[in-house]
Amino acid sequence: MKPKFQRKGGGRGRQSREKLHKFMVSVQNFVRTETGQDEAESRAHVERLVRRKSRKEMRKEKRKMKKNKKKAKQEAEARRRKKEVEAKQPPLEESNRGVSVEAAPQTPPAAVKPEPSSNPAGAELGVEKKKQLKRKVRFEEPAAQPEKKVKVQVMRKKALMEANEVEDREIRKLEKRLGLHKRRNKKSLPQSFISDGLDYSGETAGKYVPPHLRDAVDSRRRAELERLRRNLKGLINRLSEANMSSISGQVEDMYMSNSRKDMNQVLTEILMAACVTPALMPDRLLMEHMLLVSVLHHTVGLEVGAHFLEAVVRRFDETQRDGSVEGKECSNLASMMAHMYNFQVVHSLLLFDVLRRLLKSFTPQDVELTLLLLRNVGFSLRKDDPLGLKELISEAQRKASAEGQRFSDQTRVRFMLETMLALKNNDMRKIPGYDPEPVERLKKLQRTLVQNRSSGTDVKLRVSLENLLEAQRVGRWWIVGSSWSGAPMINEEKPTAQPVKGEQFSTKVLELARSQRMNTDVRRNIFCVIMTSEDYLDAFEKLLRLGLKGQQERDIVHVLLDCCLQEKKFNGFYAVLAEKFCAYDRRFQMTFQFCLWDKFKDLENLSSSSFTNLVQMVTHLLTKNSLSLSILKAIEFGELDKPKVKFLRQILSKLFQQTQDEDLAQIFSRVSGIPKLGMLCEGLKLFIQHFLLRSAQTEETLLTTRAEVAIKAMEARDAKLKL
């Protein structure tokens, strides 16, 4: 069956191919008659149509088509580059510029195919025509194409600008609907000012509020303060050592979001109400509250601790002056000041001023307060200023021996003296109830909380008791930018002091300053202030008001000492002014000491008047305890020359003749018992015995007696009184 099927199918295929061949032959004849193609081409075309292509041929044809497309693309790119180059070149002939582009044929020169012809003349004409066409295209197209490009660019730019305007109008419409870019209120302060607490600076410049609306404003203000007070009081009531970090952080955030003036007032009111009561408050509670003040003082700013300290000192002054013994407000206030010193808020200067004031009045209540302060800060004071504590204890001993008999109960006075003696000997065991562990633990917590957040290296307030009590009258110099409501300018009998400037002094004073070799503006201003002051207090205040720091501040001592030595006769004004500066701050004592050492090295070059004035100045400072005899340690007693012998003889003679026995013993006892000053004591004793007593006359018994007092004071080395 299978061979038959094949034969049958093969016959039918052959017949169909024959029919198709006949049809293609007829088509070929028709095409040949119509188009004029030869017989070979038509036969090849028919065979291509009839014959089935193999895969190899199809791949070959596809590769050929790709190659032709690539070649056509390269030719088009070459033509485009050629046109760009020709467009940049200027025309060669002037006559060709007027030829219109329309005369050129629509078909590009590369596409023109001249018909084959056997006539050579016709061929030459065709070649000439082809050259003319190429020349026309080369010179006419660059002249017309830039104009079209410019028109197209102008139209596109205009369309873009119109589109941008439409988009801008749409954006402004949407911003207006969304409420963006509104006009700011020019009268409101920047947010940085409000964050720094400076929003109260422009309160007086607010707009006018009618009388019928003022009650509403006041009520709103009271409501805000009441809300602030309620929130802050809630935090203070929950305050403890465990949550100190979180509470201080929340209070600090309140400082950042509210006015600092309101925060300082409200915080001071709440702390004073919590700590100052008629009953004696627990020491732990006072320490925790003062620790909070210390943390805010270090993190927020100095004005926090300064405002609270001023309120505490004023309340202490009022309570201590009343002398009421029923309540314990004064004891609580004294403990608060002591713990503020422990937590690095206030300098030891304030504590020494308070202790001196208590010893000056020396009532039973003052004795109790002195014991309380010494138990809380005694050893810290001994570490910070041992010389000041030693002088305080000596003053307390003299006061107790002079006025202790009028006390009905002598045990408290005796206990105070024993406590002071224990402090001098650094014996903590003899102070009952003394436990430094809670304070040290809270100090460690305070260092952790304020680490890397302090506003400066040393933020302790170095302010005296007198400055705090007179702050409303003379101003708060320890706070930068603080306001001052005292000393009104209207209806004032005395004119207010103006800032010192070189232009305000007379020509005579300025000429005198130049003659004294005051070659800098700072020294010139210091000299003019000293020369034009009414008294030493006026000079002291004006010099402090200059606001000098560092080396400029040390120039005060140099100018003062130079003015003293330049006088023909000693003027006590300079000595009293120097005493005032030494009592004001210890750094002036150190400056005077270094300056005097320089003068000691140059004694042989001083004139007789300068030599005498220097002796008078040193004697005055030693007599008033402004300086110690330790300033003489710069003198080598083994290598004394005549000027130094004369200088020491005059100083010691004046001390022995012008000083009482008790004061003289105190002056020489200040250098006794100190190992570093042992050579000085031995040198002074030898000098007194060999240079002073031998040259003195026999009838000068006063000099001999005072010399014995001085030697005994230097030899007194009681182990109990030794620091």
Automatic annotation (TrEMBL):
Residues 1-130 are annotated as: Disordered. PROSITE patterns: MI. GO terms for molecular function: RNA binding. Keywords: Coiled coil, Nucleus. It is found in: Nucleus, Nucleolus. Residues 157-184 form a coiled coil. GO terms for cellular component: nucleolus. It comes from the Eukaryota. Signal peptide: none annotated. It holds the Pfam family MIF4G. GO terms for biological process: ribosomal small subunit biogenesis. Residues 521-637 form the MI domain. Residues 40-49, 73-87 have a biased composition (Basic and acidic residues). Its main location: nucleus. Residues 1-11, 50-72 have a biased composition (Basic residues). PANTHER family: CELL CYCLE CONTROL PROTEIN CWF22-RELATED, NUCLEOLAR MIF4G DOMAIN-CONTAINING PROTEIN 1. Belongs to the CWC22 family. Plays a role in targeting PPP1CA to the nucleolus. May interact with EIF4A1, EIF4A2 and EIF4A3. Interacts with PPP1CA and PPP1CC. This is Nucleolar MIF4G domain-containing protein 1. It comes from Bagarius yarrelli.
